[in-house]
Amino acid sequence: MYQENVVLCASSAYEKKFYLNEDFFSLPQSIRDELKILCVLYTEDIGGILTLEYEQDGTLMFHVEHDEGDLLFDEIGSILKIKQIREQKRELLESLELYYRTFF
């Protein structure tokens, strides 16, 4: 049986919007704020659409999309930025994975 990934949050440079899945409103406000800052800064710096989603096993993945005609999207910068976020926010990301595995 195939199930889709569960979206935690997303940010779009095109629509200038941030989305947090309402299933995660029980997260502390400080965590929700940190997720918003992380995602919005990424899309302002790199462009495109960043989605943080949980795979079936609870692993938190970064999913990036961009319009084909978007000449300002930085593919190399995207890879480097995600690597930087994973290193700097390791504790936050691990805590979010544990939260998901525990409550979902």
In short:
With 104 residues, the chain is α+β, with helices and mostly antiparallel strands.
Can you walk me through this structure?
With 104 residues, the protein is of the alpha+beta class. It contains 3 helices and 4 strands, in the order E-E-H-E-E-H-H. The longest helix has 17 residues, at 29-45.
Shape: globular
Please mark out the parts with pLDDT under 50 across 5 or more consecutive residues, or reply none: none
In percent, how much strand structure appears in the residues?
Answer: 15-25%
By helix and strand content, what is the structural category?
A: alpha+beta
State the distance separating the first and last CA atoms. Answer: 17 Å
DSSP E strands, number: 4
Q: What's the total helix number? A: 3
Mean pLDDT across every amino acid position: 94
Largest sheet: 4 strands, antiparallel
Calculate Rg over CA atoms.
14 Å
- Could you estimate the helical fraction of the residues in percent? 40-55%
What is the strand arrangement across the widest sheet? 2-1-3-4
H-E order: EEHEEHH
Q: Main traits of this protein?
A:
43% helix; 4 strands; alpha+beta; single chain; globular; four-stranded antiparallel sheet; 104 residues
Task: Write the SSE topology.
Layout: E1 6-12, E2 17-20, H1 29-45, E3 49-54, E4 60-65, H2 75-88, H3 90-103
Antiparallel strand pairs: 1-2, 1-3, 3-4
